[in-house]
From TrEMBL:
Positions of the Cadherin domain: 10-90, 91-199, 200-314, 315-419, 419-542
This protein's name: Cadherin 7, type 2
Alphabetic keyword roster: Calcium, Cell adhesion, Cell junction, Cell membrane, Glycoprotein, Membrane, Metal-binding, Repeat, Signal, Transmembrane, Transmembrane helix
Pfam families the record matches: CADH_Y-type_LIR, Cadherin
Organism: Iconisemion striatum
SUPFAM superfamilies: Cadherin-like
Membrane topology: Single-pass type I membrane protein
Its job: Cadherins are calcium-dependent cell adhesion proteins.
Lineage, highest ranks first: Eukaryota, Metazoa, Chordata, Craniata, Vertebrata
Length: 711
């Protein structure tokens, strides 16, 4: 039904029906209607203040007959009065919040806020009050501010870590009949370090085989901490016990377990059990909770060593022995000893691994472990022999122990010295007595004495009797071969052999006879060798001078024969000989594939030379050059005359074809297409005579068409 809003009245309205009322502005005719006779205003639709709170309208009174205004237009405002038709709303809900466990009462958790679209200035429609519908007795909410706080002390995360709260906002100051809205708050309790680690048991027992390698994990223990994250990190340490030096414990960061590892190898026969007292404590401690008790725990770990059948054990891991290389086959080198460490104490049998004794220099007694030589030894062949000896239990052949035996071979004087080099000695025919021919040195594969080698050099009796050379000891294990007399002749005896005896200072002393070859050479006055009996002078390529000369001569003769043969073959076949004049012409005519640039190209070559052949003056430095140029001129002139008398040949020497019109001409464009339009049917060409002789041909072509059009 239309709702009466108000009434308009004009002083010009006498109540006789001579005037009528008009309404315009916001909502006129659509929302508000006016009775044109009485001026009553009615609302025909429901109004919503939250959408539009004010309407501005204009009213006017007009004469009913003339429809003319009887007074000026007036403006008025209709204000929409609010009613409580909107409930509070939480625009940011639902909420999530966190608060630490064991927080004191009144700790702020989160602040909620609701909005009401009603008019806050009119009545209590927009005045809100907050209350907690769900979450007591752990939390509370302030009625006016919406701040949610803890209401219970010592909330324990380990008991309950998540809470769901429901908060209500109600308008009309919370009175009956007010509208309300709710939101949900999810509260999570965060962890604090309020729980110490605790072992599940007061004592643990583990069995460890004695064959476990060092650094192996032999036990795992766990201490539970109800806290999470860094608050649950645990450190383990050994407090006391009889295995402090044998075992150690550390924390596995991924599983937070205590790992007990072995530091030294175990021996069941020596010690069969160990006891460790291990402590677990928090890495990060919260001092607020220390008064509640200690934050560590202690447990006892029993480690029982399990007996394992072990292989035989040698008295040492490496054994050193020594024997002389002069020892006879079957001599004792040394012995090794091994035993079974187990309680059974099984007998052992010894053997040498074949791969370490391929040449079978040694053998071993399988019962006693005595090593003997099986072959003669040579220190110069091998100084130290590395063999591996195995000990095997007779009761369990799978249990094998090994040891490395290093046998050093000591030296005896069993090698005679010899010359250090293969000397190539030569001497000139004119050498004088006292001249040093060569300095000799020696080597001995035997081990030197503490003071070093001592060599003695002597000539054999025959060499000394020849009286050609003598030896001079230099007292440094070298000797010099010295000329004793002159008078060597290459043709008489080109090579001399000198026998040298070298002995060492060992016990017993050993010696050897070595032959030194001395070649006689022919030399000049300065002592430079020119020719020796046993070799020829070689060139850098490895050929002798005589060989090089012979090859050169052979190649020269072969070249002459080839040239002669080719010349004779040409004469027999009748190949014509080319005249010098023709050869000159062919050598001076050059064929070019490049097209010239026309008459404007003045840099390629001089055209005057071809156009004025009769006036050419060639200046040369000699008669031969002048004859060649004259021949070329005659050749070009003959070709030019042939072209001039040939009526069928086009005049290529005077006809020039241009595809691009030049831009430097003094005359205008000659193109008939661009110079004439469709209206120009007549054209005079007399002006062509003014252009000179260069356009004579063009003038003759167009003069007979005087007055005609362009074809």
């Amino acid at each position: 039904e239309p709702l009466y809003v108000g009434k308009l009245h004009s002083d010009m309205d006498k109540g006789d029906g001579q005037v009528k009322y008009y309404l315009s502005g916001e909502g006129a005719s659509s929302i508000f209607n006016i009775d044109e006779d009485t001026g009553d205003i009615h609302a025909t639709k429901r109004l919503d203040r939250e959408r539009q709170a004010y309407y501005t309208l204009r009213a006017q009174v007009r004469n009913r007959k003339t429809n003319l205004p009887v007074e000026p237009e007036s403006q008025f405002i209709i204000k929409v009065q609010d009613i409580n038709d909107n409930a509070p709303r939480f625009l940011n809900g639902p909420y999530t919040a966190q608060v630490a466990e064991r927080s004191p009462v009144g700790t702020s958790v989160v602040t909620v806020e609701a909005t009401d679209a009603d008019d806050p200035t009119y009545g209590n429609s927009a005045r809100l009050v907050y209350s907690l519908l769900q979450g007591q007795p752990y939390f509370s909410v302030e009625p006016r501010t919406g701040v949610v706080r803890t209401a219970l002390a010592d909330m324990d995360r380990e008991i309950k870590d998540r809470y769901q709260l429901v908060v209500q906002a109600k308008d009309m100051m919370g009175q009956t009949g007010g509208l309300s809205g709710t939101t949900t708050i999810f509260v999570k309790l965060t962890d604090v370090n309020d729980n110490p680690p605790r072992f599940l048991r007061k004592s643990y027992q583990f069995t460890v085989p004695e064959s476990v390698l060092a650094s192996s994990v032999v036990a795992r223990i766990r201490a539970l901490d109800q806290d999470v994250g860094p608050n649950a990190e645990v450190d383990f340490r050994i407090l006391d016990g009889d295995g402090l030096g044998t075992f150690r414990v550390f924390t596995d960061l991924s599983s937070q377990e205590g790992l007990v590892t072995l530091q030294k190898t175990l021996d069941y026969e020596t010690k069969s059990s160990y006891i460790l007292n291990i402590e677990a404590s928090n890495r990060h401690v919260d001092t607020r909770f220390l008064l509640a008790g200690s934050f560590n725990d202690v447990t006892t770990v029993h480690l029982l060593v399990e007996d394992v059948d072990e292989p035989p054990v040698f008295s040492s891991s490496v054994s050193w022995m020594e024997i002389s290389e002069g020892a006879p086959v079957g001599s004792d080198v040394g012995s090794v000893s091994a035993h079974d460490p187990d309680m059974s104490n099984s007998p052992v049998r010894y053997s040498i691994e074949s791969r370490s004794n391929l040449e079978r220099f040694f053998s071993i007694d399988s019962l006693s472990g005595l090593i003997r030589t099986n072959r003669a030894l040579d220190r110069e062949g091998c100084v130290v022999h590395n063999i591996t000896v195995s000990a095997t239990e007779t009761m369990d052949l799978s249990q094998v122990g090994t040891v490395v035996v290093l046998i050093s071979v000591t030296d005896i004087n069993d090698n005679a010295p010899s010359l250090a080099l293969d000397y190539q000695t030569s001497v000139c025919e004119n050498a004088r007595p006292g001249q040093v021919v060569e300095t000799l040195s020696a080597v001995d594969p035997d081990e030197p004495e503490p003071g070093g080698h001592h060599f003695l050099f002597l000539l054999t009796a025959d060499a000394a009797a020849a009286n050609h050379f003598t030896l001079r000891d230099n007292n440094d294990n070298t000797a010099s071969v010295v000329m004793q007399r002159a008078g060597f002749l290459l043709r008489d005896k080109p090579v001399h052999f000198l026998s040298v005896v070298i002995s060492d200072g060992g016990r017993p002393s050993l010696s050897s006879t070595n032959t030194l070859t001395i070649t006689i050479c022919s030399c000049d006055l300065q002592g430079r060798r020119r020719r020796c009996s046993h070799r020829a002078t070689l060139d850098p390529d490895g050929l002798s001078a005589a060989s090089a000369v012979g090859i050169t001569c052979m190649l020269s003769v072969f070249g002459i024969v080839m040239v002669t043969t080719v010349t004779r073959w040409k004469r027999k076949r009748g190949v014509p000989q080319m005249m010098d004049e023709e050869r000159d012409v062919q050598e001076n005519i050059v064929h070019c594939d490049d097209e010239g640039g026309g008459e404007e190209d003045t840099e390629a070559f001089d055209m005057l030379t071809l156009r004025h052949l009769n006036q050419m003056n060639v200046i040369t430095s000699n008669d031969s050059r002048m004859n060649k140029n004259k021949l070329l001129q005659e050749f070009i002139r003959d070709r030019l005359l042939e072209a001039d008398h040939d009526l069928t040949a086009p005049p290529f020497d005077s006809l020039q074809t241009f595809t691009i019109e030049g831009g430097d001409s003094a005359a205008d464009s000659l193109s008939s297409l661009s110079s004439l339009t469709s209206l120009e049917s007549e054209q005079s060409y007399t002006f062509l005579r003014e252009w000179g002789s260069r356009f004579k041909k063009l003038t003759e072509l167009y003069e007979h068409r005087q007055g005609g059009g362009v074809a």
